């Protein structure tokens, strides 16, 4: 622990639960996004951009984790 006089720091635990899928084998490269699944987060941009990435790099994979409102 780091003690900083006059500075209040609070640790916030990760709110994203661990995925229920098995861990990757290490051979593939992953782009991972975690957050609330809502249109304001614009995951549609991520999916479209990743389509371009995966065309050039077929060993890359995309995973999106989250829940809706």
Detailed description of the structure:
By secondary structure, this protein is an alpha+beta fold. It has a domain of 37 residues. 20% of the residues lie in helices and 17% in strands. It has a two-stranded parallel sheet. α1 links the parallel β1 and β2. The longest helix has 14 residues. 0% of the residues are buried. The mean pLDDT is 86.
SSE order and pairing:
Elements: E1 29-34, H1 43-56, E2 60-65
Summarize the structure.
The chain is an alpha+beta fold and 69 residues long. The protein is 20% helix and 17% strand. The chain is extended.
- Number of DSSP helical runs: 1
- End-to-end C-alpha gap: 36 Å
Helix content: 10-25%
Q: Could you spell the SSE succession in H and E letters?
A: EHE
Number of strands: 2
Side-by-side strand order of the widest sheet? 1-2
Proportion in β-strands: 15-25%
Main sheet, how many strands, which sense, barrel?
A: 2 strands, parallel
Low-confidence stretches: none
Q: Give the overall form.
A: extended
Q: What tags apply to this protein structure?
A:
two-stranded parallel ribbon, 1 helix, 2 strands, 20% helix, 69 residues, extended, alpha+beta
């Amino acid at each position: 622990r780091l003690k900083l006089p006059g500075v209040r720091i609070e640790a916030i635990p990760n709110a994203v639960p661990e995925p229920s899928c098995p861990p990757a084998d290490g051979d593939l490269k992953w782009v991972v996004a975690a957050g609330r699944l809502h249109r304001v987060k614009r995951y549609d941009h991520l999916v479209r951009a990743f389509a371009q990435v995966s065309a050039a790099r077929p060993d890359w994979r995309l995973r999106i984790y989250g829940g809706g409102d």
